[in-house]
Design brief:
By secondary structure, this protein is an alpha+beta fold. It contains nine helices and 19 strands.
């Protein structure tokens, strides 16, 4: 059976101090720094929150984590001073950072709750999220708004929760880890980050003249004629755990010629298949599966160490809904593997050119499912002095973020939050459970036995 996890309703009170702007501890350059043409695409113009949860540590004595991180932030912003600035928009919707030194938002808070009360599993959806990350009025805009907001909430048990919300145009997961590593180093007393930040956003600006050389289905203009875009207020979220047992069960459906597929690829194909059945779209609808691919290692010339801008693509796999639901899992898997392999150096350059030519469009949301693998990002290793995080990961509806997780049984695996309408979520759980059910009497599983709930 699938190990979906649900959070028992939990309410608690958070007492917040007044939000404050933390400015760099030393004077920093006042300049205008353009973002790259990968950074400022329409799809990245939003703020994304990440949760970092820590247990108490007697070795830290009476140190206040909020005070430690506040002081460290001021020091880190000396090196990452663009984060203390504000975005401006120029001709052609071009974004640039006004390095004004206005500061990043910081909130200190206390909650009358312990980590134990959150339950045996720490994962999205987190209760009282709006209390653990206060949306300071006027802070969530893209232009002329703070680029970074950090709330540190101390718990009764001595543990604490850090929620960091950053403007995604500034960096990707890799760049975020680099910044947070610098912040944690400052918190532990260092004066200079182990990796110095590099701006050089011109490395990922469009060519002159721009020329789209690849096919980019992720930016297709698609009209939502069948109402497939799901309003956020109609969504519910659950986290699903996939350990070795679950992955092994899914791999029973992999055809022999695709057995070299990665865990990410087979899990992504499975979720795309199950999610499509759960949504019950029109059989002829085109469904898109977009996988975020870190393109840093795809370049012939090494990207400078310290570069923290966005360097990823999300090429789209496309299939008719009918085929996704009725064909063996190998159909979806082959499409996912092919799409993932398309994220080359040329592909990323082509994306930058497309942004300039087409006015920096959003990716298409019609019939789309976006996933990102952050299991190897190093999120859990960030240590502010209290030890490694007991949970670390994003909590946002834009994508299914795969995070590393150890469940209550001590099993190591992958945690995936899924967002779906309530009725569709019930169908999703049922279909997934059937895929994961062991059938020891059949060495050659017929995938059609899991499709009983499909109307396609």
């Amino acid at each position: 059976m699938s190990q979906q996890t649900t959070t028992t309703p939990l309410t608690f009170t958070v007492r917040r101090h007044e939000p404050e702007l933390i400015v760099p501890a030393k004077p920093t350059p006042r300049e205008l720094k353009p973002l790259s043409d990968i950074d400022d695409q329409g799809s990245l113009r939003f703020h994304i929150p990440l949760f970092h949860i820590y247990q108490s540590n007697p070795k830290m004595g009476n140190k206040n984590p909020a005070s430690v991180i506040r002081d460290a932030l001021a020091k880190a912003l000396v090196f990452y001073y663009p984060f203390a600035g504000r975005l401006k928009e120029g001709p052609g919707r071009k974004l640039m950072v006004d390095c004004s030194g206005q500061g990043a938002l910081f909130i200190e808070a206390e909650a009358d709750v312990t980590l134990k009360q959150f339950g045996v599993e720490l994962q999205p959806p987190f209760p009282c999220m709006e209390e653990l990350l206060y949306d300071v009025p006027g802070s969530s805009g893209i232009l002329d708004s703070p680029l970074l907001l950090i709330q540190v909430t101390q718990l009764l048990c001595g543990g604490f929760i850090i929620v960091v919300r950053f403007n995604h145009t500034m960096c990707d997961a890799f760049g975020y880890i680099q910044f947070l590593t610098a912040l944690s180093e400052m918190a532990k007393g260092t004066s200079t980050p182990s990796t110095l930040p590099i701006w050089q956003r011109e490395l990922f600006c469009a060519r002159d003249p721009p020329r789209v050389t690849c096919t980019h289905h992720e930016y297709d203009e698609v009209v939502d004629t069948n109402g497939t875009i799901i309003p956020l207020e109609n969504m519910e979220t659950r986290s699903f755990f996939f350990g070795p047992t679950e992955i092994s069960a899914i791999r029973r459906f992999v055809p022999r010629h695709l057995t070299r597929c990665t865990t990410f690829e087979v899990l992504t194909a499975c979720l795309w298949h199950c999610r499509t059945i759960a949504l019950q779209p029109n059989p002829e609808d085109e469904m898109r599966m977009m996988t975020i691919v870190n393109a840093r290692l795809k370049f012939k010339h090494r990207i400078p160490v310290g570069y923290y801008g966005n360097v990823f693509a999300y090429p789209a796999a496309i299939s008719k809904a009918r085929d996704l639901c009725n064909k063996p899992l190998g159909h979806a898997l082959e499409l996912v593997m092919k799409a993932k392999s398309e994220a080359t150096e040329e592909y990323l350059k082509s994306v930058a050119d497309l942004m300039v030519i087409k006015g920096r469009p959003n990716f298409t949301t019609v019939g789309s499912f976006l996933v990102s693998d952050v299991t190897r990002s190093g999120l859990h290793e960030i240590d502010f002095g209290w030890g490694k995080a007991v949970y670390a990961g994003p909590d946002h509806h834009i994508a299914g973020f795969y995070t590393r997780h150890i469940n209550h049984k001590g099993e190591s695996g992958i945690l995936v939050p899924i967002w779906l309408p309530g009725v569709a979520m019930k169908r999703f759980v049922k279909v997934l459970d059937k895929m994961l059910a062991r059938d020891d009497n059949d060495d050659h599983v017929n995938p059609k036995h899991v499709l009983a709930n499909s109307k396609l």
